[in-house]
Structures are given as structure tokens and as C-alpha cells.
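In practice, a research group might receive sequence data for several interacting partners and want a quick structural hypothesis before committing to experiments. The following worked case mirrors that situation: the sequences arrive first, and a predicted assembly follows.
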Amino acid sequence: MSGGWQRDSRPLEGYFLEDFHHDRVFRHATPRTITAGDVSLYIALTGARNPLHCSEPLARSMGYKGCPVDDLLVFNMAFGKTVSDVSYNAIANLGYADVRFREPVYVGDTLSCQSRVIGVKENSNGKSGVVYVTSTSVNQHGNEVLGWDRWVMVARRAGAEMPPTVIPPLADDVPASEFHVPRFLEAGALDFEHTASARLWDDFAPGDTVDHPGGATIEEAEHMMATRLYQNTARIHFDAHLAAGNQFGRRLVYGGHVISLCRALSYDGLENAFAVAAIHGGTHANPTFAGDTIYCRHVVLARDTVPKRRDVGALRLRMLGVKNQDPAKLPALAPGEKHPAVVLDLDYSVLIARRQNP
Amino acid sequence: MSGGWQRDSRPLEGYFLEDFHHDRVFRHATPRTITAGDVSLYIALTGARNPLHCSEPLARSMGYKGCPVDDLLVFNMAFGKTVSDVSYNAIANLGYADVRFREPVYVGDTLSCQSRVIGVKENSNGKSGVVYVTSTSVNQHGNEVLGWDRWVMVARRAGAEMPPTVIPPLADDVPASEFHVPRFLEAGALDFEHTASARLWDDFAPGDTVDHPGGATIEEAEHMMATRLYQNTARIHFDAHLAAGNQFGRRLVYGGHVISLCRALSYDGLENAFAVAAIHGGTHANPTFAGDTIYCRHVVLARDTVPKRRDVGALRLRMLGVKNQDPAKLPALAPGEKHPAVVLDLDYSVLIARRQNP
Amino acid sequence: MSGGWQRDSRPLEGYFLEDFHHDRVFRHATPRTITAGDVSLYIALTGARNPLHCSEPLARSMGYKGCPVDDLLVFNMAFGKTVSDVSYNAIANLGYADVRFREPVYVGDTLSCQSRVIGVKENSNGKSGVVYVTSTSVNQHGNEVLGWDRWVMVARRAGAEMPPTVIPPLADDVPASEFHVPRFLEAGALDFEHTASARLWDDFAPGDTVDHPGGATIEEAEHMMATRLYQNTARIHFDAHLAAGNQFGRRLVYGGHVISLCRALSYDGLENAFAVAAIHGGTHANPTFAGDTIYCRHVVLARDTVPKRRDVGALRLRMLGVKNQDPAKLPALAPGEKHPAVVLDLDYSVLIARRQNP
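A structural hypothesis for the assembly, expressed as C-alpha cells:
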């Protein structure tokens, strides 16, 4: 634990820009034991169908102690804890980097989370600035299950003294050579009879585009239940009375819910992509509101090997979350290119079994 | 396992009429371990109050290993798995037959499901046809927990070659002599103190009509969460953008959710009907949409004995799901008679304790 | 068990005023084993973040066998069981008194509930009257986990004979000397690292006002799911078709859901108030509907010691549930004073750790 840790009570109004001095550590409230109830709600709210997270016998045959918890449920749970401290007064979520999924999380595991300030910079308008944090979530054994960097634009109190500017280095990506692949993993046990698909690592090539067929119309009750499940407290998702006064005049859907929906929709086509290894970067390119219908396109960016494994490989993917438009009618987008229907543009890697020659 | 099983990946656009040749077997994706979270969500989404599924001590006193999972939760879970393969391109769900509830399902059991094509017939318009399948769901021990026949109208691709026409025999009903009643069952342990009702098998007679007092207004978030809980992927339930172009201009409520709501509403009056033994047939007679309020009428069709048991009997019931109208004001309907307010007309049998003479 | 218990089946239309003769006992239907699924849903529906109910290691370090179930989830579950018998034909919920939280409830415990009529009085209009009941909920060991008194206005059938009038004594409050504080409790184990707050018993004083920063806009799906989770069957919450004919023309939100939302919102400021000890009284001062945004103000009424404990104390609080208005802009309200934006006015006590001198 860093010497930067302070035992000041979190202020009810949350932290502001000038509170984020370099190296300050926040131990986030409410450690959480993940339960079977959380997993069921995640399925009901997102439509997740990855068999590894649904079938105990399958998970065991793949070498796990039981069904690991969906990587994005873990991500959202861990992320949610940081909001009260890091982004309660956020004006915008600017980016993610270096998101690494490590130890599997099982039902019964307890996740705690902390963040350290790695950078801070005032905007030229003097009313806000950018805060950079590195966050880690550990289980009850103290093992890290997830780590990530994130930067947000945070409001500044008038007249407060700013800490010195620090701009941190940020990773462009997580190298495939550093992906966490459990030693025990028997990737081949995830069979056609579990996924109804024989599409494996070998069948994908850079440039391949998959427009997934399903769509998910989001209701206010759904995104709020998901976001509360993660104990994410950002008021913009929950408080229509307050939101009536913002630039949109309404509540916003939490971006992590959109990521989860896209991952769930992409089961049809990426049936055998059983785990998320890393998120290299991403942006919530446009806001999502209740009533929007989310679709998903994936573009294969790279097919990577992982060290010491011939049975499992990685696909680096560009996930495009598309709203209120058939994704098959979306034009090809250059790297970083924006489009008014694209709400999510995520660069990440999944693990997927490789075809075994007899 | 049949020789009809094919290891072709499920096409992203789903199967069409011409893909359903006789005896083809589909092993449906995503085996599912049922959890306590699924059971809680089922209660929260349907209002189910059957004590057998709620109280562990009661379930044990009735001879079960623990609370068995609600029969209709099992049905919806099993049915949901078949949708991606069987009815992703369905135009209409035409009917059920021979639905048999067998081994009890407990929290922790893992359900898998497969279907075999037992019939196929092109419609005279050449654009669609009827597919008949028989489906079975087994637990992790390979024991069948549920079996059913079903027929659906499925779209045909233009120009595709049709398999030969086969029209299967379909059972009119499941004989009461074949109902699965667990040998261990102590029906008498379900006492007045659990149900607040002394209405038993002996108190019902053919022709009796019960108009249940409750009503359930359905919200979009509710029917979508229920349908996703079952991992049912039919787009008509989830995608408002796509549905805007259909004949209704909106999403449809999954018919199995309406069955579950009616079963839950009927607790007031059928408090001691602790299990569903069979569904003999049924139709979703009119569409249900979010905003509709569902009520339920039951008509007793028959009072049946079950083999070797004097403590438990069966009631054959006609379940009428009624929308936006007090069911008590519904006229008596002849067998098969339609009514614009009736959305569900189901012929099924429940198990219920018989009065014991001292 | 009282000799007042009757084995008459609950009538489908519910009980009316004249059915509540003094000392009549109702054993309420559907004993319920609380599961991890119930706990997850409670978090997703209310936003509860109390670490004692979320982290197994923390709960154990505080001396509990595991995470105890949130007191208000227990209250709502127990209360829900009474509705079919006590308030199915209620015109208004008039009040609570003497609500005592006793044995902790854990996942896996089974709650049963019964009520005894302690008073009944006809209104002068002859069409309704007041029913007073005392209710208790016990676990599977027969130990009382919760007890409370409640009075409701209930409709009378025309022409029915009234039982004799009995007006019971009602407690003004539960003395702090009678609060249930588990002997095993290690209050000091709830540390800053779990709650991100060092605000303890010592930091509050009578008259202190806390306007909690969050707000929760309620959707129809959410309040109905919560109310069904509790198996509360009051039609006014679920049946929009029936409600169209009532004075509001729409469904009402169950008052217990509003209490739970306020308790959850008040985590920011009362982070270390880990348990509810008693509810002394309270009223649902105005109706709440879907679309309303709920905020919460707390006023400290008293700081109480509890017998034989120097590590934990109690705060007596006035919880004001406020709708569609920033609570910070609410005027100070005299005891019992009403305000059109106040939907809930609750007088209750929480347990909270005291600062330990080294």
C-alpha cells in the first residue's frame, strides 16, 4: 500500500480536480463478494451466452475450478467501485489503456479495488482538467484479477490550488506475449456441442468483418439495474430530475453496459472466443440513451499466438457498437474514424481455441 | 446421439426451412447450470409464489433433495436453447404437444438440450413451411428432465431445394397414467400453513371455473430480462429498431413469459397445485405487447388419478391468458373457441394433493 | 401458536374488515429461503452499498457467520408475506410501530411469518375501518428475526357483522436499551478501507442534517420487480388496467421500495451505519409513482448508547424521502410537519461504530 493513502472521509460531493495530487491512493469502498445472483442478473441484463460462464461441467473440463465469472462482469464490478472516488465529478470519460485480465474470478471471490493517481493536468479554461489513474482489483487472496489505466476530465472547484502537472506515459497496447493464459487451461474441451460453432482461431484473418445479427433495445430499468449491480454511483445514469438540466436533457447509459451488450451480441460469430485477455484502448464515441437499439460489428485486427501454447491463440478485434442502424450498412471505417451511429470503438483481444491437427 | 447430427457451424443468419431435413439433429448451444440467481429472477419477473420452489425445509419434508426449480422456469430455459437453431427465422409458433416434465431439476443441475426434426412441409405459397421437432433436455447425469414436440412456421430461402415432405403423428395428450410422480414424494407435507389454502384435488370438478384476482402489467424491461434469462435469442423480443418494420411495429412478448405469468397469478386459487405434470397442447392466440395487463382464468377439464398414488392426483386444466379485461367478464368459451382478449389457451395438467381421510 | 388460528382457505378476494376479529391469527403463505439471488437483485434494484452485506470476509471479521442479509430486504420479505392476508383490501397503510430487528438473517435461512389481530375499529362511514396487527417473522430454527405492529384501513363488505371494537396500545418507540446488538459483534472491524468514511457515532449530534447527494428515478419495471421479489401481492403496484380506475389513474410504488431506496442513497454520509436496529414509526406521506426521482434527507434526532457496549452506539434518525426536488432546498420541517415533496417520514435507529481511544 502506498504512502499516498489518506484516511480522509470521502466528501459527500465527491472529489474535484485539485484533490488528485500525483501518487495519491484511493482505497475504494465496498469490497464485494461475487455471487451466483450477480451472474444471473448479468445474463438477464446483457444476454450473455458464453458457455464457459454458464456450464459448471464445461468449465471444469476446461480446467477451471468452476465457472469463472464473465470478464466484463468483473470489469464492470471493479470499475464501478472507482466511480465514487475518481469520476463522481467527471465531465467526460476520455479513455482506457492497458486493461489486463489476470486471475480468473469465481463465485465466492471477494473483489477490492484501489486507484493511484498517475497524472493530472489542468485544462486551459481553468474550470476542469484531466486526471489519470491506474487501478487494480484484487481478490481475497490479494491476487490481482484486473488492472487498468484510465483518464477522465474532472471539474475543478473555483479558486482551489492545483497540484503540479504530471502527464504519464500510456501503453499503446498490451503485448500478446503478456496475456494471462491459465496454465491449467484445456482450450480444446470447449467443443462444438457447447457452442454450435466450429469457427476457431484459424478461421479468422486480419480485415475480416463480422456484422452480428442481433440487436438490443435498452430500457431505462435495464441500464440502471446493471449499473447499480456494479455499485457504480455516477448520477448521470440514475437521476432523471438532475439530468433534465444537462446537455442531453436525460439520463445517459453507462458505457460499460454497452460494451457488455456488444460482447453478448457478438456470441453469434465469435462463439468460441471464451475469454477477454486485454483491452488496448477505446472510446465511447457517442452517447447512448434508453430507447436506443445497439448492434455490433467486429473487425479482426490481428491473429496473435500466445507464448508456449499451440491449442489457444488470440484475436485482436475492433468492436464497434452501432446504434439504431443495421451494422451491415455501416461503411468500412479507417482506424480512429468516427461515425454518428458508432457509440463504442474498442480495441481489445480475446482468447480462442486453435484447430488441432490429428 | 443420432447419426443425423451435423458439425456445421450454425449460420449467423440462422436456419431456413430447407435446412430442416427429416431426422436432422441439433445439439443446442450453451449448456446451463441453473443457479439460485435464476430462481430469484424468476420470482421477481413473474411473481411466482409456489412454496415448493421457495422453502428448502418444505421441499425436504416433501421428499425432494432441496427446492426443485419451477417447472416453467425449466421449460423456458430448455425452450430458449432451441430458438437459435429451430425458430430464429420463425414466422409463427404454431403449437406444442406431448410436453412431459420428468426428473426434478435442482439448483446446481446443468441442462443441455437437443432437437430432432420429425417433420417438414412446404406451404403452398412457396415462401415458408412448417417444421416439426421433438426436443429433449437432459441434466448432467444424462437423465431427461423435459421432452416436447413443437411445430413452427419457418421462412424459406428463395430457390433453395426442399427436403421431402414428412408429416409426423402428434399426440393429443399425455395420458395421466404416464405422468412422472416421484416415488419419494410426500404430497401431504405441503400443508395449509405453507399455502394458506385447504383447496385440494377433491375440491375441484370438471367445469369449475376460477377467475384469478391478480393482474400483471408487462414492461419492456421485464419481458426482455425474462427472455434473456432463458437465453432465447428471437430478435422480435429485443430489437425495437427491427420490429418497427414488422406488422405490429413493435416488440412482441415471448409467449413463455405469458405462460409463467398466468401460472403465477393462478396461485390464488390453485395454491396446492405444486407441479406441472404435462402440457397437452396450446396456442398463443393473440400477440402480447409491453403495456398489456395479463389476467388468468382456469377451467377444470378433468380430475385424474395417477397410478399407485392415493395421496396425489392430477387436474387437467385449460389456462386462458386474458389481456386488458377482467377475466370474470369473459364469456364461457367452447373448446378451441377464440376471443380477442385471449392471448393464451393452454391445455395442461398439474399435480395436487388429495385429501386424506383419518 | 395461538388458538386463534383458523384453517379456512384464504378467500380469493382477500379478507375484509369484518374478518379481523381480535386475536385471530394468520399464518402467512409461502415460507421463503433467502438466497444469494435475492441479495443481488436487492442491490440491483436499490443500489445498496453497505459493505457488511457485500463482503463475506468483512462480515466474518465483524463476527457474523457470513454476510447478513440487508435489514430492509428482510423487512420487505417479511412484510410482503402479510399482504395477501392483512392488506389485500387495504385502502391505506396508516402506520408502523415497534419494528424490532433481532436475529441476523443469512443466505440459506428460511423465513415464515404470522400476524395476530390486536385491534379493529369501524370507521364512522360504515364502509371501512382500521385493523391493527402484530406480526412476527421467524427463521427455520423458530427464532424471531423481526417483529412489528402495523395498522391499515381496510374495506368492509356491505351488511357484514362487525367484530367488537378493540383499540390496542401502540409503542411510541423502541427503547435503545432493548436494541438487539449481537454479542459476537466486532464493530471496529468495519474499517475506513471498507467504507471510505471515518464518520462514526461520535461525529453526529442531534439536529445534524445530511442531504444525501444521489437521486434515484424509479421505473415501473423496477418497483414491480422489487415488490414481486418480496412476494407482496397488492394489486395497486402491478395492475395498470385496474389502477386506471383509481384516484391516481395509475400504479403506485410500494412504500417499502422507497424506504430501501432512501436507505441506499444515504450510504453517502452514513457509510458506517451498518445495521437498522428499530423503526419507531413512520408514514408514507405522499404517493410515489414511476418516473419520480427519490432523494433523501436525514436529521439526527438522538445519539444513544446501547447496553454493555462502548464500541457501538445508535443514532435515532428522521429519514425524509423527497421526490423531484433537491433535498438541500427542502425547508427544516417540524416533527410531523408535512410537505408536498416529502413522500416518506420515518423515525428509526441505526447501529454505528464508536471511535475507540487508543
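Before designing any experiment, note the following. The longest helix of chain B spans residues 71-87. Chain B touches chain A at residues 7-10, 12-14, 26-33, 35-38, 40-41, 84-85, 108, 110, 112, 140, 219-222, 224-226, 228-229, 231, 233, 235, 238-242, 251 (CB under 8 Å).
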